[in-house]
Amino acid sequence: MLAIRELLAADQAQLAQALGLASCDARLEAQLLMAAALDVNRAWLLAHDDEMLAAPVAARYTGWLKRRLTGEPIAYIFGEKEFYGLMFKVSPAVLIPRPETELLVELALARIPVDRLCRVLDLGTGSGIIAITLAKLRPLAELVAVDVSAAALELAQTNARNLKANNILFIESDWFSALDSVEKFDVIVSNPPYIRADDPHLARGDLRFEPTRALAAGASGRDALTRIITQAIPHLASTGTLLLEHGYDQGEYARAALRQTGFHESVTYQDLASVERVTIGVSDKFTF
Ligand code: GLN
After folding, report:
1. 189 membership: H or E segment, kind and range
2. Using an 8 Å Cβ cutoff, are 24 and 59 in contact?
3. Mean pLDDT, rounded, of the chain
4. Of 102, 208, 244, 245, best ligand 1 pocket probe by most atoms within 8 Å of the beta carbon
5. If one looks up domain 80-282 in CATH, what number appears?
6. Residue 193 Cβ < 6 Å to ligand 1
7. 74: buried, middle or exposed (CB in 10 Å: 19+, 13-18, 0-12)?
8. pLDDT > 60? residue 286
9. Which pLDDT band, with edges at 50, 70 and 90, does 68 fall under?
10. What is the pLDDT of residues 197-216, one digit of tens each?
11. Nearest protein Cα to ligand 1, atom 5
12. Cα–Cα–Cα angle for 247, 92, 166, nearest 5°?
């Protein structure tokens, strides 16, 4: 029988080889799997790495390690992922939350007042991370979250229930199609699919396990962005804001498409990696 330390060293090497990970990433992953199997944090793990694993813990750990060695993302193995300080359930029916989407949430929060009603729409909500985070931090806001996938909506509703976000209405809808334009929103937010259908990244790493429909958007990667931009104005209040996450090379396109469609202003923000990531359109003379 091997102590935790020896197991981690051997499995780190296996993970690095099977997944082409840098050794520090492979080490972190082995530790994460082990800490979760033991139900302890990494600090505990490192302080007790001379101990042996009890049989049920070893079985759990080995099962997860095998899945990870086939490439399955850790978030799907654990069935959860943290976003903006909250823990969300995830499944292969939805994208795994990404840190760059926190920029979209921050920019939306800056446009949703704390002290009065604001109507907010989240298009393609997936696991619900955007709508639920906004709903929790802006309890006076009224949110509508839509997704074309019934499985995603069910998961988003479970997340909303678990996190006690009660100010969200969930609707099954292909973008705006099930919404009545009589109902106006002050803020519309979306992290739509925006990868080109032939992008080789779709077949690599975590992405190959995620729903293609949530990642890829036609030959140009712009299909969903275009659809949202061209259909948004009738659903926006007179001073309404549309916030869109997009790919590193789509900022210019998004700004131009917003202006052509009748938005008064459009501006793009960079994420922490200095990549153009979120473009905002305002349907009035609001200045940034
Ligand atoms: N940013 C994600 C990626 O490149 C894609 C997310 C999306 O398509 N909405 O992996």
Report:
1. strand 185-190
2. no
3. 96
4. 245
5. 3.40.50.150
6. yes
7. middle
8. no
9. very high
10. 999 999 999 999 999 999 99
11. 215
12. 85
